[in-house]
Amino acid sequence: MTPEKHYLTVLDNPWYRNLAILQDIFTHSTTEFWTRRGTRNLHLPVTTGSISSPMGRGSDSSPVQVELEGVPTYLADSMQFMLEFGCRLAPGGSYYVMPSFRGEPADQTHLCQFFHSEAEIAGGLDDVIEVVEAYLRHLAKSFLAHGRRVVTEMAGTVEHLEILAGSDSMPRVPFEEAVELLKDRPSTVNAPEPECRSLTRQGERALMEKFGGYVWLTHPDHLSVPFYQAFAEDPAKALSADLLFGIGETVGAGERHTDVADLRRALALHEVPEEAYEWYVNMNEQHPMRTSGFGLGVERFLLWATQHDDIRDLALLLRFNGSDILP
Length: 327
Description:
Number of helices: 10
Helix content: 25-40%
Number of strands: 13
CATH class: Alpha Beta
Strand content: 15-25%
């Protein structure tokens, strides 16, 4: 893979002409889904002073810091905070499809710059899980209706789309139960510190095998997720869930803190300075609202849709951190 010449590969290889079609179908289908639900699209910045996902003790990612006119800032890893803000403006919820930036190196399963389909709605974790499943079924039906030939050329089949389009509710398994199910499988749990565990990629694959390819992994250790995920009844656990399919985690979802005291407690627990999130604390204090949201990695969904094995082939133009790549 030669990033400097990749644009010529894109122009010569039919794979990328088909990819352009699928990207277009994805965006139109997403807009159609949310418009029908009365959810508002928001135009948001790509820079922020208060990052979300790569933050805290359980983070497996790092932020991308830049300098604009002498002021340090971050390229957005997610605008989830802004979607929570948007819910205060749009009672039907808010959404976008926007680029996200991460500091870890690209590989077969990660991109440094990728697209996020994210939304925030009024309600709790169960509500957002149901919405995610409806959204995925809608995407599958749209790909079948408008991209059947393209997907067949790229994946060799559309059976996986047909199964998703006709699916019912997907199985859910709490993290503790998953650990018990996988106790005889080596290298399935990552534990950098007590009560900050997560499944490894091998663990995700093993769990998907047990549940037929799709499974929600719910109620993880709170220290393993960002601070803004609400506490479960057991405060050591979070009201969040990852949907595992394809290469593994493809959707991340969660409920947010409703009580500002819980938000402050979570910031302290995760050793995150409150000063950087003062605006977020103030918003929740002055405009409390129960919301939940999710993020779907667009390229990860397309990787599954095309039944491909390298996510770097799902970007029209490559971007690697530390490299100056044109165009």
